[in-house]
Design goal:
Distance between the termini: 40 Å
Shape: elongated
Structural class: mainly beta
Largest sheet: 7 strands, mixed
Helix content: under 10%
Mean pLDDT: 97
Radius of gyration: 14 Å
Length: 121
């Protein structure tokens, strides 16, 4: 079992910045992928960015060039630096952990409780 605790959400004005953090604990295996997803009211949860334990990253098109995902493997922590925030970035942001095992049945999602990000003037 893996526990994920997010922090860093809040209210910011358009053009502002926030840095989200997610600390993982429990039965953490490597290799793995951690990432951020978000869900706005009335919409499905969507990928924001992911990063593998080897450092490979992926970003959703709407955040490319504005958001940066990083991780500290020693601390089992993943970060999301969000710059040039837009109102459409408003959502609950969820941290995700998934083991990258050759046995696919082991690679199920673990989720944090989410942290609210609101971008409004």
């Amino acid at each position: 079992q893996v526990q994920l605790v997010e922090s860093g959400g809040g209210l910011v004005q358009p053009g502002g910045s926030l840095r989200l953090s997610c600390a993982a604990s429990g039965s953490i295996f490597s290799p793995n992928t951690m990432g951020w997803y978000r869900q706005a009211p009335g919409k499905e949860r969507e990928l924001v960015a992911t990063i593998t334990s080897g450092g490979s990253t992926k970003y959703a098109d709407p955040v490319k060039g504005r958001f940066t995902i990083s991780r500290d493997n020693a601390k089992n922590t993943v970060y999301l630096q969000m710059n040039s925030l837009k109102p459409e970035d408003t959502a609950v942001y969820y941290c995700n952990y998934k083991r990258d095992s050759p046995y696919n049945y082991l690679n199920y999602d673990h989720w944090g409780q989410g942290t609210q990000v609101t971008v409004s003037s």
